[in-house]
């Protein structure tokens, strides 16, 4: 597996020295995994952070025995249960691959080694945490300030292939509406159901 996409993303955050790059490569484990593979299952402690090189993934939890979809990842993004990974506490979340995927895994111990040996890794760590926080805040703002139709449009613009990858039920869960409401929105927008 090539690491080009990962280092392109990391270099956009902070310059990566050759020595740092080689250390990262030594810590990474590349995996090719099937559709529906569960990367993290609550209540396990997240011992891995993942870089999605190819594929699509979602994060969800169960609330009152119902699956509540909290987010999606496309290639070029870092996937994690942040609280579980950084605090090493049981996860409330599940991370599932929604199509055959290639991922790069970095263990918690490997991340700590990189942080200890390379001060520049703190810039990457800080940016990743900030991006995670901003995505959560943006979703919260969208739920409060955008109607379901606009949230749906925003989701489609961010993830154009999403309706070919995951079920309408998962999309509806993410949007905070029922599958029937999603069908109504799509009919009104003249989209295929």
Can you walk through the features of this model?
The mean pLDDT is 92. This protein has 193 residues and is α+β, with helices and mostly antiparallel strands. The protein has a domain of 115 residues: Jelly Rolls (Sandwich). Strands 1-8-3-6 form a four-stranded antiparallel sheet. Strands 2-7-4-5 form a four-stranded antiparallel sheet. It is elongated, with a radius of gyration of 18 Å. It is 49% helix and 23% strand. It is built from nine helices and eight strands.
Secondary-structure blueprint of this entry?
Layout: H1 4-13, H2 18-27, E1 29-33, E2 38-40, E3 48-54, E4 57-63, E5 66-73, E6 77-79, H3 82-87, E7 94-97, E8 101-107, H4 108-117, H5 121-145, H6 148-158, H7 162-165, H8 168-175, H9 179-189
Antiparallel strand pairs: 1-8, 2-7, 3-6, 3-8, 4-5, 4-7
Helix pairs in contact: 8-9
CA-CA gap between termini: 36 Å
Average pLDDT score: 92
Oligomerization status of the protein chains? single chain
By DSSP (H or I, 4+ residues per run), the number of helices equals 9
Structural class: alpha+beta
The major β-sheet equals: 4 strands, antiparallel
CATH class of the domain at 4-118: Mainly Beta
CATH architecture of the domain at 4-118: Sandwich
- Strand order across the largest sheet: 1-8-3-6
| Shape, principal axes of CA atoms | elongated
**Content of β-strand:** 15-25%
Instruction: Provide the low-confidence segments as ranges.
Output: none
Might you state the CATH topology name of the domain at 4-118?
A: Jelly Rolls
CATH superfamily of the domain at 4-118: Jelly Rolls
Number of strands: 8
What order do the helices and strands follow? HHEEEEEEHEEHHHHHH
Report the helical percentage: 40-55%
The Rg value, from CA coordinates, equals 18 Å
